[in-house]
């Protein structure tokens, strides 16, 4: 991949301490796909850092659906913009965006490895049911080894996430689902 090119620099109020923080925007070209935008906010006062990524086209709220069915499928690139929710229904996993949720670019495999680390950590805290923990960890490890089929769904309200593959399906999220009242 080519080096990201810096395209803009702005000052904003830091969401943590309210002092002036710097936001730098970079455009990164992904072969056979196109340009994505990476924004990095850095606060030199309190050290807060936040990264977000997204495709340059702003789309409608949509569900991005990708099935991992055979070896190689886990190599697809996943762009998750901050604010979108990731689900793996077969494993009963839902990753909600937090208030400072970071955007990231990874592969499906990278996401699974990250989930294994986070789930192991969560299991060690003892805050979650142990048998459920072990069940999810077992499934994730099978997923890592390519032994199970599963579906990745990104609920992408910003319309800026994507999974780069010709087998990705997109379903528009209807506005009613966002909890708005019907009518005008
Ligand atoms: Zn700050």
Task: Give me the number of helical elements.
Answer: 2
- Based on the coordinates given, report the CATH architecture of the largest domain: Sandwich
Tell me the structural class. alpha+beta
What's the alpha carbon Rg, rounded to whole Å? 18 Å
Give helix % range. Answer: 10-25%
Largest pleated sheet: 5 strands, antiparallel
Average residue pLDDT: 88
Give the name of the CATH superfamily of the largest domain: ZPR1, A/B domain
The strand order across the widest sheet is 8-7-10-5-12
How many β-strands, per DSSP? 12
Q: Name the beta content range.
A: 35-45%
Shape designation? globular
pLDDT < 50 runs, ≥5 residues: 179-184
Hetero compounds: zinc ion
In words, what does this structure look like?
The chain contains 2 helices and 12 strands. It has 184 residues and is of the alpha+beta class. The chain has 2 domains: 56 residues, Single Sheet (N-terminal domain of TfIIb), CATH 2.20.25; 115 residues, ZPR1, A/B domain (Jelly Rolls), CATH 2.60.120.1040. The C terminus is likely disordered. Zinc ion binds next to loops.
Sum up the structure in keywords.
184 residues; alpha+beta; N-terminal domain of TfIIb; Jelly Rolls; 4-stranded antiparallel β-sheet; 2 helices; 12 strands; disordered C terminus; binds zinc ion
Task: Annotate the secondary structure layout.
Elements: E1 5-13, E2 20-30, E3 34-42, E4 49-55, E5 62-68, E6 77-80, E7 85-88, E8 93-95, E9 104-107, H1 108-125, H2 130-144, E10 150-156, E11 162-164, E12 169-172
Bound molecules: zinc ion.
